[in-house]
């Protein structure tokens, strides 16, 4: 007589690793080369790496991925160089190995600081701050980093596209404007800010990404008034201090990288022409209350001609002048 044991169900989970995508350098200028690195947990031999550009799919609130040149069969190197980066772009990576290719998941979201603004890796959004003609831009009204949570804030997307999606990323979630604000055309209106830090940007169906901005919702009674976007070297900038309920009726203290730089009845800190040394963290203090600190970034105004092009242009002009002088000399003889 044959005896059988009780039946049971065996569930096998396919625990695919998820690589992490990083970028260098973190601060970009037009035409710069960008190096992407794809890191797999517990790396071993045999992995090939696949590199993609992200394209927003507004109708499905998702992203599609387009393979970058030269990576259709994967690369043995875990790094990939994007040459001549001129506009904001999004990227992801994944790895695969074996004859019947076993793929990892796509790289997961991560966040790292970038001169007061941020790189978002989901998509890796790279704000090219010194690009004189960005594909798209995000404006904030009122134009400041810190806001009281009771404030109303408007964020507007501007660019060539007729349709935009405005995204918000925090340490907890990635959401559309429709989930935390109201949309009017290409503007998202927030009637009550979430407490804490969040990164906002715009993206279009055609694959354009705007600059990313950091906005902080504060429950404190005091905030620092500082610009959302980097300030161009040589331009003036004004920082302020703001209380929720009362006017500023005592001395206002302004700090740069925790060093006191102004202490008097003036309610604003005016810098007539900012330089790179003015870049850093600022905060203010008044009536025994201290604001959070915010980063003020300073950028250089780049030439609209890449250096090689400008050099070639100057060389051409010099050659024309020399030829003209030579012809004039021969004619005189």
From TrEMBL:
Residues 17-112, 220-302 form the Ig-like domain. One of its GO terms (molecular function) is transmembrane signaling receptor activity. The keyword Signal applies. InterPro entries: Ig-like_dom (IPR007110), Ig-like_dom_sf (IPR036179), Ig-like_fold (IPR013783), Ig_Fc_receptor (IPR050488), Ig_sub (IPR003599), Ig_sub2 (IPR003598). This is Uncharacterized protein LOC127140224. Keywords: Disulfide bond, Membrane, Signal, Transmembrane, Transmembrane helix. GO terms for cellular component: external side of plasma membrane. One of its GO terms (biological process) is cell surface receptor signaling pathway. Pfam families: Ig_3 (PF13927). The chain crosses the membrane at residues 309-329. SMART domains: IG (SM00409), IGc2 (SM00408). It comes from the Eukaryota.
């Amino acid at each position: 007589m044959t005896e059988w044991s009780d039946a049971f169900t065996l569930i096998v989970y396919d625990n695919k690793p998820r690589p992490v995508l990083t970028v260098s350098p973190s601060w970009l200028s037009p035409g710069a080369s960008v190096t992407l690195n794809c890191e797999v947990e517990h790396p071993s031999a045999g992995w090939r790496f696949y590199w993609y550009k992200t394209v927003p799919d507004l109708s499905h609130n998702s992203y599609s991925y387009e393979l970058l040149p030269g990576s259709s069969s994967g690369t043995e190197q875990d790094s990939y160089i994007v040459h001549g980066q001129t506009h904001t772009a999004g990227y992801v990576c994944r790895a695969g190995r074996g004859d019947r290719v076993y793929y990892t998941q796509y790289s997961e979201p991560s966040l790292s600081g970038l001169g007061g603004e941020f790189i978002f890796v989901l998509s890796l959004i790279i704000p090219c701050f010194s690009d004189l003609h960005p594909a798209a831009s995000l404006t904030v009204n009122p134009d400041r980093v810190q806001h009281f949570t009771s404030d109303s804030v408007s964020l507007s997307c501007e660019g060539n596209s007729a349709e935009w999606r405005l995204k918000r990323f925090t340490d907890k979630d990635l959401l559309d404007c429709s989930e935390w604000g109201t949309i009017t055309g290409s503007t998202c209106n927030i009637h009550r800010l979430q407490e804490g830090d969040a990164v906002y940007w715009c993206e279009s169906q055609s694959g354009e990404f705007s600059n990313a901005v950091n906005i902080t919702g504060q429950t404190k009674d005091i905030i620092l008034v500082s610009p959302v976007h980097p300030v161009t070297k040589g331009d003036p900038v004004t920082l302020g201090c703001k209380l929720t309920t009362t006017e500023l009726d005592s001395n206002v203290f302004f700090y740069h990288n925790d060093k006191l730089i102004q202490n008097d009845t003036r309610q604003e800190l005016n810098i007539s022409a900012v330089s790179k040394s003015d870049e850093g963290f600022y905060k203010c203090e008044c009536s025994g209350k201290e604001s959070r600190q915010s980063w003020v970034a300073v950028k250089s105004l780049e030439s609209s001609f890449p250096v090689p092009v400008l050099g070639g242009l100057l060389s051409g002009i010099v050659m024309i002048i020399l030829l003209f002088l030579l012809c004039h000399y021969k004619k005189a003889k």
